[in-house]
Task: inverse folding
């Protein structure tokens, strides 16, 4: 999906960000997770949430965003805890 929405269509005029911001009221999200995400800053920027959310981009095209008013980042790190079977690998 990322390769299409952000790669080919260059964000489609912020459509994913508008979807997020349009559905985060009246109660804002506290935490959001994204797969196939290569830039959490792009997503949060399109949603107009860069001031109120922090974000982390991890390996394997995974991102997380957290609402700064609800969460404090005390550290970050990465550890693989599981993997699909080889017959489930997409695109290999």
Result:
């Amino acid at each position: 999906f990322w390769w299409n929405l952000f790669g080919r269509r260059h964000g489609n005029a912020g459509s994913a960000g508008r979807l997020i911001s349009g559905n985060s009221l009246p109660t804002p999200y506290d935490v959001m997770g994204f797969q196939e995400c290569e830039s959490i800053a792009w997503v949060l920027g399109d949603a107009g949430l860069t001031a109120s959310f922090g974000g982390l981009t991890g390996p394997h095209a995974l991102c997380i965003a957290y609402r700064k008013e609800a969460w404090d980042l005390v550290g970050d790190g990465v550890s693989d805890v599981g993997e699909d079977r080889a017959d489930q690998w997409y695109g290999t």
Summary: The helical segments are 2-8, 15-22, 40-47. The first strand starts at residue 31 and ends at 35. The first helix runs from residue 2 to 8. The mean pLDDT is 90.
